[in-house]
Amino acid sequence: MLDIVQILRDNWLLLLVGQYPNGPLGGIVCTLILSVLGIVLAFPLSVPIALARLSSNRFLNWPATVLVYVVRGVPLLMIILWVYFLLPTLIGHDVPGFATMLCTLVVYEAAYLSEVVRAGILALPRGQMEAARALGHGYFGAMRFVILPQALYNSLPSMLSQFVSTIQETTLGYVINVPELTFAANQINNQLLTKPFQVFFILALTYFVVCFSLTKLFGSIEQRIARKRLGTATPVPAANTPSLPPSNLSAKQLP
Amino acid sequence: MNDFNLTAILMNPEYSAMLIKGIKLTLLVALCSWTLAMSLAVCLLTLRLTSLKWAQNFVAAYVSYHRNVPTLVQLMLWYFGISSLLPNALQAWLSEHNAEAVFAIVSLGLCQAAYFSEDLRSGLRAIPSGQSEAARALGHSYIGSMRHVIMPQAIRNALPALVNHSVSLFKNSSLAMAIGVAELTHAVKEVESQSFRAFESYFIATVMYLALSLIIMGAGAWLTKRLTIAGAR
């Protein structure tokens, strides 16, 4: 236990920002930046993929389905190796590990998020689309103004939990030497050599604290969304409560 | 990348032997950790269903730890950390018997057990309480009602999630490469560095992973369809 405190006191800066002022930004800050950027950049890609998967046009539907199934069926590590190898050959010069990992995450998360968005769209009643079309919206107008606002809002909880798994997936950057949290912990372990359990315990604990608190936070957001959806979908309590007081009120007001 | 030549790798006896060894180890790790995970998940579920407060808290903590710590970090904690705390005799024995693979199996199995037990539990929670009341009223004991009435329905409910998590267990077996298990991803990197044919070797590995994942998904879909009782929800 003392060892753990000692290691933390000596290396907290390395775990937090890596070798930042003298080297690349790393540690937990790098992990968080990588996951936020990954999910934020993947989101705009995921919506068109979801729409393509829902489309009845074979030339849109097939490529999107193939993409989603390939990404779902192949380990993330394999996709990292692909990007690590393909990206430099495609753009013609060396790519730093951070950019490789970011690219991988964007591809991977876009496929997973597109499934989330698709589920959100499919969960809406068909009447929404039919009503929007009947009111004179085109397909894109209906999507833009009626379907997507509802579908994206409803799938927000799944997207947030996807963010937590993205944080966990950034650990794989360690394999291609991205200086994120796992990499920093391995650096510490290589310096100390004698205390592997303590170092990796700290690492596990850090991830646990970050992911657990985010999960709890997102859980409360999810409940709020669920309550809001319930409130708009079933106006029973709103319609019932006023019906009781009036009799009371009128009784009081009469005299 | 100038010429795409799959036969250069597939027909080379050395490379193909490496790949076959890799896929065998991937399958071994995946199957062993799946078995471990499933049996542990049933134990965890049983603990959670008891009325003992400490047992429920223990399972909740177990699940929350394994869901919130990245699998790679769990692997490292087991392979570098916990292995160093074991008695020397056991360490020596393990290092003679492919310690990397053993720790990969243990940590992947323990991790996936948390997911499996949650899948089973949510399958169980979806069963209306009337089912178990009716079973008890018909004279089944607790065990009997579980065995003949509740569990057959709960497993059907949990099946899609179990299949999804089995696929991710299979995919996660590639993480074992980071601690030096010579499974498929590891073998492919070896083949690539020896043959300088990155495109072909990655392509072969991707096709293999994809084929196996799709087989698991397909088998799951087939099983779900087969087990569905006509007329039930």
Automatic annotation (TrEMBL), chain A:
It is found in: Cell inner membrane; Cell membrane. CDD domains: TM_PBP2 (cd06261). Residues 28-218 form the ABC transmembrane type-1 domain. Gene3D superfamilies: MetI-like. Residues 236-255 are annotated as: Disordered. InterPro entries: AA_ABC_transptr_permease_3TM (IPR010065), ArtM/GltK/GlnP/TcyL/YhdX-like (IPR043429), MetI-like (IPR000515), MetI-like_sf (IPR035906). Keywords: Cell membrane, Membrane, Transmembrane, Transmembrane helix, Transport. The chain crosses the membrane at residues 25-47, 59-85, 97-113, 134-153, 199-219. Coiled coil: none annotated. The keyword Membrane applies. The keyword DNA repair does not apply. Its main location: membrane. Residues 240-255 have a biased composition (Polar residues). It comes from the Bacteria. It is a multi-pass membrane protein. Pfam families: BPD_transp_1. Belongs to the binding-protein-dependent transport system permease family. HisMQ subfamily. This is Amino acid ABC transporter permease. It comes from Uliginosibacterium sediminicola.
TrEMBL record, chain B:
It comes from the Bacteria. Keywords: Cell membrane, Membrane, Transmembrane, Transmembrane helix, Transport. InterPro entries: AA_ABC_transptr_permease_3TM, ArtM/GltK/GlnP/TcyL/YhdX-like, MetI-like, MetI-like_sf. Its main location: membrane. Pfam families: BPD_transp_1. It is found in: Cell inner membrane; Cell membrane. Gene3D superfamilies: MetI-like (1.10.3720.10). Residues 23-220 form the ABC transmembrane type-1 domain. It is a multi-pass membrane protein. The chain crosses the membrane at residues 25-49, 69-86, 202-223. Belongs to the binding-protein-dependent transport system permease family. HisMQ subfamily. This is Amino acid ABC transporter permease.
